[in-house]
Design goal:
Length: 195
């Protein structure tokens, strides 16, 4: 009996969340993403109280995550931009000027879903201490200091994490922004990956 009442209450709650999320979704992917985050914390809290699986709530959450995925772009914004720039460079100056004249000056906003690695701050700290303000690529001093006075260097992975590289002191190096960018975009750069 108690169980039946509880199940009923959960279904009511799930329906209420559904109405609320449908409403929020009208405002776009950004607000929906924030609301889903809140909703998930709420589900976790409820579960800690009831010790139940709260399936109806999860079902509603899953449903709106799917909706959000459809509303958002996947990881490709930067790549698309680079391809579009190459295309723009190839069109004539007149064509480009014409497009610029009628272009929207307030760019459209998109929400990007991406998968990132949670990097170990100790690896970053250790590599920065090892470099001691000197780029491990070109041997020059860091180009400027951060607002907190530390020399500005970026910690890069010799073998990319996405390619299975380790998030370790041995696989990382501290680089000035130029050396770092070259490693990601340069034509002449070969590899720092250990053979
Ligand atoms: Zn450098
Ligand atoms: Zn890098």
């Amino acid at each position: 009996m108690r169980r039946g009442t509880r199940g009923f209450a959960t279904t009511i709650a799930a329906n209420a969340w559904k109405l609320y999320l449908e409403d929020i979704a009208q405002d776009g992917a950004g607000p929906l993403s924030v609301a889903l985050d809140t909703f998930l914390s709420h589900i976790v809290y409820i579960q800690s109280k009831t010790k139940g699986p709260e399936a109806p709530l999860h079902q509603v959450h899953d449903e709106f995550v799917e909706l959000l995925k459809g509303m958002a772009l996947h990881e490709t914004v930067a790549e698309n931009l680079n391809a579009a720039v190459q295309k723009s460079l190839k069109s004539s100056a007149d064509e480009r000027r014409e497009r610029l004249a009628s272009a929207n000056r307030q760019p459209e906003q998109v929400v990007v879903l991406t998968r990132a690695f949670r990097r170990n701050p100790d690896v970053i700290a250790e590599v920065l201490l090892r470099a001691d303000g000197t780029c491990e690529g070109c041997g020059q001093s860091a180009p400027f200091e951060r607002s907190d006075g530390r020399p500005y260097l970026e910690v890069h992975h010799r073998r990319r994490l996405a390619d299975g590289g380790d998030d370790s002191v041995e696989n990382a190096m501290a680089l000035c922004p130029n050396c770092h960018r070259e490693r990601h975009y340069g034509i002449n750069y070969v590899s720092d990956a250990p053979k």
